Amino acid sequence: MKSFYLTTAIDYVNGSPHLGHAYEKVLTDVIARTKRMQGYDAFYLTGTDEHGQKIQQSARARGVPTQQFVDETAAEFVQLAKLLNLSNNDFIRTTEPRHKQVVRAALQQLFDKGDIYQAEYRGFYSPRQEQFLQEKDRLPDGSWPEIFGEVIEITEANYFFKLRSYQQWLIDHIAAHESFVFPAHRRKSLLEFLGEPLNDLCISRPKDRLEWGIPLPFDEGYVTYVWFDALLNYYSAVKDLGRWPADFNVIGKDILIPAHGIYWPIMLHALGLPPPKALLVHGWWSINGAKMSKSTGNFVDPVEFCKTWNVDSLRYFLVREMTVGMDADFSRERFLVCYNSELANNLGNLVNRTLNMTGRFAGGVVPAAGEAAEAENELQTLWAATRDEFIRLSDGLQFHAALDRLRAFLTETNAYIELRAPWKLAKDPSPAAQAQLHTTLATIAEALRLGSALLWPVMPSSVEKIRAGLAQPALTTWEGELEWDGRLAGVKLGPVDILFPKPAPEKKS
Ligand code: MSP
Predict the structure, then answer these.
(1) Most informative mutation of 13, 25, 255 for ligand 1 (most atoms within 8 A of CB)
(2) With a threshold of 0.90, does the pTM exceed it?
(3) How many domains does the structure of the chain reveal?
C-alpha cells in the first residue's frame, strides 16, 4: 500500500479552540480520508503546542500550575478532534517525553556538529511582559506602547542556530521543487523573503526568564525556543514508524514565513533529514467580515456549533466555502443558506425521496432497472463526468469546486425525479408505466449510492447513515464503488433518520 503522511499545525493551548483551528483540522481530515479512499495508507497527525512564554503567562494569570493548565486546555483540543470526527492516527503533545527526547537529541546533534553556537543577544526588553521587543513594536512617535511598561536595553548570552549557512541550500531546494509550497503565490513570497540575508536564529531562553520549556541538553541554564521545539513534533511522532518525510504539513498563512518555510526545512537539512514534500498553506477565516475575537464576541465556538447543528454540516460548510489557500468569511446567514439549500433541500431531499418512494411504490426493495431512455442515459453520463472531475479537483486540493460538481449532480438527480414523477407512474397500472417506475426507482437509488460515496471524506457519518439505509457496507475505498452497475437491484432498503432537520427557530449559533 502506498503510504501518505500528513500533519496539521499544533495548536497553542493558551486558549480554547476556535473556528480557525477547526477548519485546518477538518481540511486535513478531508485530505486524509480522500487518500484512504484512493488506496493510500494515510497517517494523520495533529496535536498541541504546549511550551513557551505565552502559555506560562496564561497559566499564571489563571493561578494554576502550568502542567495542570496545559493538561486542561489540551483536553479541550482532544475533545474537539473527537467532536469533529477527525480520523487522526495520533495526537501529539509537546510536553510528552517521546517528543522532548527527540528535541533534546536534535539539539545535541546540531551542537556537536557546530551548527549551534553561543553569542551575546542585545535588545529592548519589557520586564512587565517578559519579552524582547522589536522595532516594529514601537509607536509611530518612537515610544513603546503602555502595555510594555518600562522598557530596558539588555544584553544576554544565548544560543544561536546557523540559519544563514543554509540559506543558499534552501533557495536552491525551493527553486528545484515547484510543489514545495502550495499555493504558488505563497512560494513566491517565500522566495522573495529569502532574497534578503537571514539572521541566525536564537534558539534559547535563559531559565530565569522562562522555565516552561525543554532544557537545552548542553546547558541546563536555558530552555529551548518554542518554535524550535514545536516544529519537531512532525518528526518526533513518527520517527520510529518510518513515515518521515511528511507528504503535507498543513498550516495557516501566518506561520509559513519564517517558521515552516525557513526554520523547519533548514533544521531538518542540518539534521540530515529530508524536508517535508509540501507545505500546504491555507487562508484565514474572518467572521461577519471582521477578525475573529473572543473579547468582542465576534467568535464561533466550534464545539457549541457542532452541538447546535451537527458536525457534518459544519465540515461541509467549511470545505465548500473556502478555496484552499484563500481567505473566507463565516457568517450565520451564509451557513443557513448552505444548510437549507444544499444539505436539507438537495442531498437530504434526495435521501428521503429515494427511501420513501421505494417504500411506498416497491415494498422497500430496489427494483431492477429496465431499459434506459434518454433521461437515464444523460444522468449516467453526467455521473461519469462528475466522478472524474471530482477526483481530479480533489487531487488538486480544489475541494470547493469538487463539491460544486457533486452538487450539480444531486440537483440533476432531483430534477430527474420531477421529470419522471414516480407518484404519477405509480397510479398507472400499464406495463410501460410500471417498467418506467422501476427504472426510475433503480436510477435514483444508484445515483444516491454513487453521489454519497464521493461525499464520504467531507461528511463521513452522514454518508454512513445513507449507506446503512441503502444496505451497503461501510466505505473503506472508492475502488469498485464508483461505477454505475445497478448493484442495488433486489436490495431491501432500511430507514434513515432525517439527516438535516430544518433548524428549530430557537437555534441561535
Ligand atoms: N502553535 C503554533 C503552530 C506550531 S506548528 C509546529 C500556532 N498555533 S495557533 O494555535 O496559533 O494556530 C494554529 C493554526 O490555526 C495555525 O495554522 C493558524 O494559521 C491557524 N489559524 C489560527 N487562526 C485562524 C483563522 N482565523 N483562520 C484559519 N486558520 C487560523 O500557530
Answers:
(1) 255
(2) yes
(3) 1
